[in-house]
Design brief:
By secondary structure, the protein is mostly beta strands. The chain folds into two domains: 2-48, no CATH class; 67-118, no CATH class. The protein has one helix and seven strands; from the N terminus they run βββββαββ. The strands form two sheets. Strands 1-2-3-4 form a four-stranded antiparallel beta sheet, with no helix packed on it. A three-stranded mixed beta sheet has the order 5-6-7, with no helix packed on it. It is flat and about 50 Å long. The model has no long low-confidence stretch (mean pLDDT 76). Keywords: ATP-binding, Helicase, Hydrolase, Nucleotide-binding. This is PIF1 helicase, putative.
Length: 121
């Protein structure tokens, strides 16, 4: 299965947010993978397993990943909203407020793709 890396770990190895990997090994503290997209295709990489739980009993709360998004105008970049949503692990951790041009709440937004970006690709 191909997975998507959700944080910048090491740019020199190509381990940046959005890179695609195939997980080849799962250890207690590290994940091994093979890059399947970008300039480092085929390279084997190791990523630390990151946990948001703390074993420190002095901390009276649990860490959680959440995202709050305010869209006062339509999404301006292909995949921008996807990146925001992909940062959370459950629906409870994601809140979104979308307003229209009059400032009223709405449930709709547009995802614009500018074809000019792809002209020289």
């Amino acid at each position: 299965m191909i997975v998507l890396l959700l944080r910048n770990i090491d740019q020199t190895l190509g381990l940046c947010n959005g890179i695609r990997l195939i997980i080849t090994k799962m250890g207690r503290y590290v994940l091994g993978g093979k890059v399947v997209y970008g300039s480092h295709i085929g390279e084997k990489v190791f990523n630390p397993r990151l946990s948001l739980t703390s074993s420190d009993l002095r901390i009276p709360f649990m860490f959680s990943r959440s995202a709050n998004v305010y869209l006062s105008s339509p999404v301006f970049s292909h995949g921008q909203l996807y990146v925001a949503i992909s940062k959370v692990i459950s629906r409870d951790g994601f809140k979104i407020l979308i307003t229209d041009e009059d400032g009223d709440h709405t449930n709709d937004t547009s995802n614009f793709v500018y074809n000019e970006v792809f002209c020289n690709v």
